[in-house]
Amino acid sequence: MAVRGKGSKAYAVREYLEANPQAGNAEIQNALAAKGIKVTTKYISNVKHLLKTKRQVVKKVVKERGVGIPEVKAALALLKVSGSVEAARAALDAAQEIKALI
User: Which long-range contacts (CB under 8 A, 24 or more apart) does 21-27 make?
Assistant: First the structure.
């Protein structure tokens, strides 16, 4: 079973890419192999593709909705913390009430 989060292979690839954005697949594979993480170049390519796809989706939403990336990131963080859209809306309603009272 795959490990999710900071112990995952995908996380290791993303972390390496963040530190070395111009790194090629073979370079990433060799660097991770030195750390004891076995990944194939195809796996690295898939992780890179998913990162690119996510960036494209964010850019599309930002363009269509007219909000900035910080607002999108804050909204995603709120959804992650609250667990559901309904809970996030309830939290926003409560915040709106508090803002009105202040």
Answer: none
